[in-house]
Design goal:
Number of helices: 10
Largest sheet: 7 strands, parallel
Distance between the termini: 30 Å
Helix content: 25-40%
Radius of gyration: 19 Å
Number of domains: 2
CATH architecture of the largest domain: 3-Layer(aba) Sandwich
Shape: globular
């Protein structure tokens, strides 16, 4: 199948592109490169345009059988400070993308969603039937788009899968692509940089939370496992699957303290860190029940935490050695 991958030059999107290729599909990357990286698209067809550009989108969709949508603003803190940007990019522009899809023959759609749609969970692990109460504009925009997809499924026959993933982590095992954000806000790369001494001591938000060791618990899932889930979702829709949403996570929670210990084990270095006040509205614990993805897609994570960290560490070493330049 030919698949248009919006945001295919970004972190998760570029890994999905490689999983598509490995499965025998043709990926066409559609990215304005505002946060993506041209190097991540090498070897693939790249259309440099915005999803709000109707003319460019119409041309890109010609001959495509499906769309995978990753193009979005994705910083929780920034969404609080600048909600206009998030509603403009993740809702207004995304609805223009849907207009373009409906004007084409494409009727299969896979959406990169997030556990941020759940907000602060009332029970753990989080299932797809857990109450969705996003506590920041980022989560709210993702939930809105999921609702649009559900409505368009009824009115226009646009079948979709919304994949709500937890904390994407790691890098491609081949070392060609990995996590590369500016600014970097994600815990694992910041911990690795602190271990290398190329970034300040890691800030740990809270040490007296209502968790076993007092630090936040999250569910870290390898980015290639996420990419593979998108391919399985494509297969599901191609076989007539109905519109649905599902969680992607390992089902195992890792505290920040446990993560620091694991980074130290993988890197052989200490991770300097300091404790600061918890962030307002930051849930003490988030981890997934991914039973639906297992039963519907046959998806299971292939990477455990240490394997995920090893790929991230090797990528970080490559970046620091100057072995990768944008």
């Amino acid at each position: 199948m030919r698949v248009l991958v919006t945001g295919g030059s970004g972190y998760v999107g570029s890994h999905a592109v490689r999983e598509l290729s490995a499965a025998g599909h043709e990926a066409v990357i559609y990215d304005n490169l505002s946060t993506g990286h041209r190097r991540f698209s090498e070897g693939y067809r790249l259309i440099e345009a915005d999803i709000a550009d109707g003319a460019a989108l119409a041309g890109a969709l010609e001959g495509c059988d499906a769309v995978m949508h990753f193009a979005a603003s994705a910083y929780v803190g920034e969404s609080v400070e600048n909600p206009r940007k998030y509603f403009r990019n993740n809702v207004e522009s995304a609805l223009k993308l849907l207009d373009g899809v409906l004007a084409s023959r494409t009727r299969l759609f896979i959406f990169s969603s997030t556990c941020a749609t759940y907000g602060i969970p009332r029970t753990l692990p989080i299932t797809e039937t857990s109450r969705r109460e996003p506590i920041n504009p980022y989560g709210a925009t993702k939930m809105f788009f999921e609702q649009a997809l559900a409505a368009y499924s009824v009115s226009h026959g646009l079948r979709s899968v919304s994949l709500r993933y937890f904390n994407a982590a790691g890098a491609h095992p081949g070392g060609a692509i990995g996590e590369l954000h500016e600014p970097e806000t994600h815990l694992i790369p910041l911990a690795l940089k602190a271990a290398l001494g190329t970034a300040p001591a890691l800030k740990v938000y809270g040490k007296d939370l209502k968790t076993e060791d007092g630090t936040c618990i999250r569910d870290y899932v390898h980015v290639s496992d996420l990419g593979r889930a998108h391919v399985l979702a494509l297969d599901y829709l191609a076989q007539g699957g109905a519109t649905t949403a599902m969680n992607l996570g390992t089902g195992e929670g890792t505290s920040v303290a446990q993560l620091i210990a694991a980074v130290e084990r993988v890197s052989g270095r200490s991770v300097p860190h300091t404790y600061v006040e918890p962030r307002a509205g930051d849930p003490p614990a988030l981890f997934a029940d991914a039973a639906r993805a297992r039963s519907v897609l046959g998806w299971r994570p292939r990477f455990d935490l240490l394997e995920t960290l090893r790929t991230a560490w090797n990528w970080e070493l490559k970046l620091q050695a100057g072995g990768y330049r944008i």
